[in-house]
Write a structure and sequence with these properties.
It contains 5 helices and no strands. By secondary structure, it is an all-alpha fold. The radius of gyration is 32 Å and the shape is elongated.
Amino acid sequence: MKPSLLAKLAQQGADWFKVAKDAAHGPGLDGQLDASWPAHVTFQCHSFGAAAQYWQALHVREAALAKGQGYAEEITRVKAAQAEATAALAVATAQGMGAQQTGSVTDLQSKLASMLTTALADNRTIYLEVEPELESLPPVKGASPVKPTQPSLDIPAGAGDPLLATLLPGAAMRALEATREKLATSASVVEAEAKQVGDFVCF
């Protein structure tokens, strides 16, 4: 995949986790969830944000090499990615997350440090461009890997009964089974009593 597309996919992940983070701290859920859940979505939000800026930095470097200008944007993007990665690892440290959870972000930090060193050296000795402010750059726009579609609840004519129409909730099924057992027991009692009456009459 092209870096530009990977940047968009990563940004979409960051956007989704931001929605989850805001919901976790919003009315109705704030203080109701275990603290690890808001921390997890915050960590993921920063992690995906770092990945988005990393891939965008690779994309703008390719574009700059093709156009012969715009090299300094890579520096700004890499620094933005580093800030997001640092924020993610700060959350991880506060929550005591292990290396299995933070390994990908730690690896990304190493790549970013190497990229920044090279980009700074190249810009200082070759390109001599002014580093743009992140706010002056177009934001990375997220792109979903799938197209959301509204499901249809209409049942086509001749399709028969709706799927799972005969199923009941667990509580209702248990109540139904208990009723069946009671009826079976009552039927056995009545049958036994009827037999006794029949034996008495015959005698």
